[in-house]
Amino acid sequence: MKAYVLRLYAVYHTTQSVRTKVRYNRAKNQQMTSSTTVIVRNDERKFAVCDSFVEFMVRKHQEELQRLSALIREEAIQRHNSYLQTLQYRNSIVVGLRRVLARNRGQYLVPVGSTASGLASGISDIDLVYLSTTDEKQRETLLRLLSKENYRRTFMTEVKTRIEESSLCKEFDWSQTDIIHTARVPILHLQTQKHMQVDIQFEKYASIRNTCFVRLCAQYDKRVALLNMWAQKWLESQRLKDSKHGLFSTYHVLMLVLHFLQCTGSYGIQPILPIMCKKFRGNLRPTLPIQRAAVSLYERPKDLDFNERQEPDVAELILLFVSHYANNEYEQHQVSIFDPYASATICRVKGGADLLTYAFQTTKKAMLAGHCLNWPISMK
Question: Where does the signal sequence lie (predicted)?
Fold first, then answer.
């Protein structure tokens, strides 16, 4: 039996997967008999999609869906504004840490995660990757040493000491410092006096490349941020988002969203995202020098205008997102999620396939009954 595998298309793919092609052909054959039309207010354009669930929902709940899209866009604007209010302070912390830790040639302190991808809000953590060397021979030796727990703890403690002894000392609440050296991804956790969380990873090329990938997706289409915001809150409402206790993480949910948005062309509509690692092969290839990837993240992502409506709007994409994953048939109890640079699954949720299947199918049934179309999300 085969486990269900979700793989975001990596740079070595030259065509879409067979699964996507088959679904696309099926969608084309259905267009004559099954399509949905949404009349967008103040616009004569129409949205047609080959999915009977979406067809029914749009026909029956058009006003609720328009309201949901408007509320999500409003929330996105508020989140972004709250981020802008903290931007100057965030920059001062990052620049200050960079002066302390990345003083020599070949050293970098790189923003990663939501702060660098453009998906952050005012309460988002500052996630950073410290590269102490980009010389391949030195790096190979360092990684071998960091695999040993005692050396790793000593290395991280020395980094913490350098910050403590610098001019930044008074910026942080040192009673809240934590050296998490035994985690799968070791982190030096800091907290500023203004209660902003700062997490520093060490020598993680993958985090830098993945952030470049997510940023390109978010900048390509603003609906990435909108659908991701809904999906994160939705999985929280299902009580399935808690990586510290073996459930799904924010990054897992984001990968589900990005995979889906690259598959939307199989439903007879213009793809929301192209196969990103194919279209942007030059910037996303795994052989791109890490220095170039790192420096590209030093500049903050451009601001997105969430006021503008797009077709299909986020509410229609939510319906299609739910239907897409509710229809997947899992033959084992595990779900494998691969980001573009992963050689092994990044998801180790026990029974993850069953959990996801039940959540998507339950949500689909609730939507058919007119529920789960509000914001904030409620299944009632």
Answer: none
Query: Please, what is the angle between helix 62-101 and helix 223-237, to 10°?
Result: 100
**In this structure, are residues 267 and 27 in contact, taking their beta carbons and an 8 Å threshold?**
yes
Is residue 72 within 8 A of residue 226, CB to CB? The reply is yes
Q: Give one DSSP letter per residue of 272-334, joined into a string.
A: SS--HHHHTHHHH-TTS-HHHHHHHTTSPPPP--TTS--SS-HHHHHHHHHHHHHT---SSS-
Examine the fold and report which residue of 168, 184, 204 is the final residue of a domain before the chain moves on: 204
Q: Is residue 294 part of a domain?
A: yes
CA angle 59, 47, 371 (to 5 degrees): 40
Q: What is the pLDDT of residues 127-160, one digit of tens each?
A: 999 999 999 999 999 999 999 999 999 999 999 9
pLDDT under 50 in the chain at which residues? 1-2, 8-45
Report which of 10, 69, 72, 12 is spatially closest to residue 40, judged by C-alpha positions.
69
Which pair of structure tokens corresponds to residue 235?
């999985």
**What does the alpha-carbon distance between residue 176 and residue 193 come to, in Å, rounded to a whole number?**
10
Total-model pTM: 0.87
β 4-7/178-180 pair status: unpaired
For residues 63 and 189, state if they share a domain.
no
